[in-house]
Amino acid sequence: MIEKINLTMLTDFYEITMANGYFEADMKDDIAYFDMFFRKVPDDGGYAIMAGLEQVIQYMDNLEFTDEDIEYLRGKGIFSEKFLEYLKNFEFTCDVWAVPEGTPIFPYEPLITVRGPAMQAQFVETMILLLVNHQSLIATKASRIVRAAKGRPIMEFGTRRSHSTTAAIYGARASFIGGCAGTACTIADENFGTPALGTMAHSWVQMFDNEYEAFKTYTQIYPTNATLLVDTYNVLKSGVPAAIKVFKELDPPNKGIRIDSGDISFLTKKARAMLDEAGLEDCKIVISNSLDEYIIRDVLEEGACIDSFGVGERLITSKSEPVFGGVYKLAALETDGKMIPKIKISENVEKITNPGFKAIWRLFDKDTNRMLADIIALADEEPPAGDEIEIFDPNATWKKKTITNFYAKNLRERIFEGGKKVYESPDIKEIKKYCAEQMDLMWDEMKRFENPQTYYVDLSDKLWNLKNKMINEAK
Question: Which of 176, 185, 212, 322 can bridge 242 by disulfide, Cβ–Cβ 3.0-4.6 Å?
Fold first, then answer.
């Protein structure tokens, strides 16, 4: 294990070679604008959830090159001494704007914009993408799983199946933002306050001569958290009967059973009947073992008797689609205070970027406060207003919609100004609450697992005209 890591050096090597190139070409002070955005919602869903911004802020607020870093770069033999001296005295001076964590987000929206010296704005690319891609992916998956449970708590149980230590820790954080009740990851609770949850493994039961002794001992030690794992040997013939015996004898204030294998629908129905017959109607049933939103939805439709779920590897790895796909692209340069928009052209329409320094306006219905559409506009434009507005799908311009009775809200906030942090990340519980509130503002049709209603993300007329002008000029 690497004992000491300076995350400043967690970057693609080409960002350092480009930084040295900008320095040598006398471009180190040229002002550039870079946008971080994504092109496709995971699992063909109707939305994604923004997450990871707090870690981006911490990263930017602690950028520095150690003596060891400088010596490592000097040893590569390709960087100038003047550049290495610049890095030794490095000071982050960029402006940064971002969408707050917990916000529903959609393709092509500039989630984070970095403005500053080109070599600095370029350099932070990898960590922005790494942090936002990962946590947004897990928060989005968690949101889907939580919705499938229809109000039943979801516990994130994937620590041991995650792809690394940091993936486990930040995945637990992101899952909480997405709506999970807590996590099995103890260190995430210690650092972020995401409640640590869990009881026993099968090995606890196997350590005793029989399930009754295992369950009785555990319940005596943890009477307020007596959730007993009943599938070590046989759920219905030995596990549930032993749990019932212990609960009848000790009557703990909080009692439950957990089933980690077998036919979920069948076993929970039978177990519920056995518990109720024994007068243990207050005993909860917890289910775990390779669950996802589709399995949870299906077993509940089958009438399974479940009070909460523990979801592991399919959540912490977003197994069904484990790549978020965010990108970081140059959007503009600034010369003598004048904006020069930049665009990337591609034969693939989805890879053509939106030029210029931009803002995101979210339109809400005045009566219901429901989300209606988003408009990406140039930053110097006035917010959308008036009695009505016609929007369209930029990739299918014949798809148009007229919106009335709306108000507009700017989605992004200033995070850094001249390299100084001007934004304080909310508490994790506040972010989770905000996310749940924002989800309630979405139409149910957008939340379907299959063929969700497409949410309009339009370009303002000014941005649309600029983009088409630049495309035609490039031709």
Answer: 212
- Residue showing tokens 């004048």: 338
Ranges of each domain in the chain: 7-138+322-474, 199-288
- Of the candidates 75, 8, 51, the one whose C-alpha atom is nearest the C-alpha of residue 425 is 51
pLDDT along the chain (475 residues), means of 10: 77 95 92 97 97 98 95 96 96 97 98 97 96 98 98 96 95 98 96 93 97 98 96 97 98 96 96 98 96 97 98 96 96 92 90 96 96 96 91 82 94 98 97 98 95 94 95 87
Of the candidates 67, 122, 57, which has an alpha carbon nearest to the alpha carbon of residue 89? Answer: 67
Residue 189, Cα to own-chain centre: how many angstroms? 17
**Are the C-beta atoms of 121 and 94 separated by less than 8 Å?**
yes
The amino acid that residue 113 corresponds to is T
What's the pTM value of the predicted model, to 2 decimals? 0.96
Amino acid at 8: T
The CATH architecture to which 7-138+322-474 belongs is Alpha-Beta Barrel (3.20)
Residue 266 burial (C-beta neighbours within 10 Å; 0-12, 13-18, 19+) = middle
